[in-house]
Amino acid sequence: MDILLQLVFSGIALGMIYAVIAFGYQLTFATSGTLNFGQGEALMLGALVGLSLVGTIHGGPYISYWLMVPLVMVFGALQGMFVEWIGVRPAIRIKSEFGWIMSTIALAIIFKNVAENIWGKDVLPFPSPLSSEPFTVMGANVQPMQVAVIIGAVAIMLAVEIFNRKSIYGKAVVATANDRDAAGLMGINTRMVITFSYALSSATAAFAGALVAPLTLTSATMGASLGLKAFAVAIIGGLTSGMGAIVGGIILGIAETATGFYLSTGYKEVPGLVLLLLVLAVKPSGLFGKAAIKKV
Fold first, then answer.
1. Nearest to 228 by CA among 83, 40, 33, 25
2. Is residue 265 in some structural domain?
3. Structural domain of residue 99, as residue ranges?
């Protein structure tokens, strides 16, 4: 039972990282109907930029981890705006149905190559801001950083939801998500809203990178796998549901850790893919998603 609880806590921490990235997918899909397939690379760049800021490589100026996090989010926001400006806006302007897919994938490959040339191809350790000594919860050993990851992931998603519900600009985002054409007729600059959604999406991904980096090794290749799994989480939970991202992330995280322990680490990718196939077969809109109804 202690081992099972250990796996559950580890799975929840991992799943919340997936949930934050999946939440970023939802932000852009809601406002523009597009996805940034370089979301994993935004996480990777956030982790590596954060690593440089805390001064562990390249002799960078040392700053504390907690000051580094908001700086990384600003960097992520700028990177997201760049992706929207270069890769997505032209496709939306000419009404290309699939142009943004190839554009965001191409930019993801470019970002990965740039990261390899700046930081190298080797994996790099990221110093933890919290003690590495675990504490016991119901017989399971839990690292303080795992708790920080869960709290941080919930906090960032809750902050975005409060912003959307309470602020004027947040309501413009919600209006654009509900009906982009109607929002434009009401005087809302939907182009700026879409740019903002991409900035916010990449900022949350960079935040996730700064969160997960102390728990794992950092490298230029870390984003591809995390981004793909988070996309699966977004599909499983539903691209229109924030709660779906959280539930889907937790399910996938626990399934991976349990499979890796009880079967083999070589099979830990299988449960998520099987679940994805089942959801697509039974409920294509996701567990918490709503099927879109179009009048013809």
1. 40
2. no
3. 2-226
